Amino acid sequence: MTAEIIDGKQMSADIRAEVAASAKKLKEEQGPTPGLAVVLVGEDPASQVYVRNKENACAEAGFHSFKHELPKNTTQEKLMNLVFELNRSDDVHGILVQLPLPKHLDSAEVLLAIEPEKDVDGFHPVNMGKLVVGQTTLAPCTPAGCIELLKRSGVELEGANAVVVGRSNIVGKPAALLLLAENSTVTIAHSKTRDLATVCRAADVLVAAVGVPKMITGDMVKEGATVIDVGINRTDEGLVGDVDFEAAKEKARAITPVPGGVGPMTIAMLMKNTLKAAQMALPAQDR
Ligand code: NDP
Fold first, then answer.
1. Which of 161, 193, 268, 270 is deepest in the core (most CB within 10 A)?
2. Within a domain: residue 279?
3. What is the strand order of the sheet 35-41 is part of?
4. 121 is catalytic
5. What's this model's pTM, rounded to 2 decimal places?
6. Range of the domain at 196
7. Mean pLDDT across the stretch 175-197?
């Protein structure tokens, strides 16, 4: 079997177009234009690129974007005050503090200060807690993108054996919870898992979020499985995922490539969350 390649780039473009259409309708019928504030501390080149991409995505979706750049020696107090100011602003529906922050800053305290209703990254413990109790509002963007890829590819999640390799708070754990919410039977594997190959071979849906290039080999993939590769690893061969793509695609029914799979979905889900945050900010009777 040679797998269908899941085109994350196309799906991301489709979602962003849908979000733009909904934002236009929201503005015409109810007034507000969704607004995303992005806070960048310091001059990390990769972070600058991410922030620029987010600004471009906002422009394309018809959102307002508010960029706040602080010098790398900014104090915790200044950063916290900016977050408080953005929490109070009616024009700002989503707040995103670009990580990683310089080492002298306490990112946990900053993320905790963001109003949960404006936490479009979905990292606030309140939003994480909602995910756990099945009342998801703003889900973390990358795992939400994985679910969207699966659904749009027509993969049956209900009752499926799903294995998530990786248990980070930003990808592995929320991906597992979102799969559980879709009624999959979920296993979370990690660095202490015994016999990872056997665990993975039981998966109808295999999500790899590890950060180790090509560690999921072809023999770990069940015939006919769907494989979602979250990994982004810079190697001498260029950008590669956590899955040995060439080997896995001979076993899987469908698989995401790297690049062009999960990666482009993250920003699409960020736009979707910002739209949702703007809708949630409407008076209850207008939602
Ligand atoms: P973390 O380093 O936070 O977590 C990695 C997880 O993998 C941990 O739970 C760890 O287990 C587990 N792990 C490490 N080695 C092994 C192993 N040999 N066997 C089994 N499990 C193992 O990474 P992230 O979750 O932040 O990111 C994962 C990958 O996803 C990275 O490549 C990252 O670049 C990518 N990524 C991609 C995004 C996108 O937009 N596409 C967004 C975010 C991340 P343990 O907990 O036991 O240590």
1. 270
2. no
3. 64-70, 35-41, 94-97
4. yes
5. 0.96
6. 141-264
7. 98
In this prediction, residues 115-132 reach a mean pLDDT of 97
What's the CA-to-centroid distance between 211 and ligand 1, angstroms?
5
62 within 8 A of 23, measured Cβ to Cβ: yes
- Residue nearest (by alpha carbon) to ligand 1 atom 31: 211
State whether residue 244 is helix, strand or coil: coil
The reply to whether 80 and 169 lie within a common domain is no
For the chain, what is the domain count?
2
User: Active-site residue 103, yes or no?
Assistant: no
In this structure, the answer to whether residues 52 and 94 fall within a common structural domain is yes
Among the residues of 31-171, which ranges form H helices?
A: 45-61, 76-88, 107-113, 125-132, 141-152
pLDDT of residue 284: 77
110 & 145 share domain = no
Distances (CA, A) of 247 to 16, 157, 182: 32, 24, 28
- Cα–Cα distance measured from residue 83 to residue 3, given in angstroms and rounded to the nearest whole number: 45
Write the residue with the smallest CA distance to atom 15 of ligand 1: 191
192 lines ligand 1 (CB under 6 A): yes
Q: Of 7, 118, 119, 121, which residue is the catalytic one?
A: 121
Query: pLDDT value at position 123?
Result: 95
* pLDDT (tens digit per residue) in 40-91: 999 999 999 999 999 999 999 999 999 999 999 999 999 999 999 999 999 9
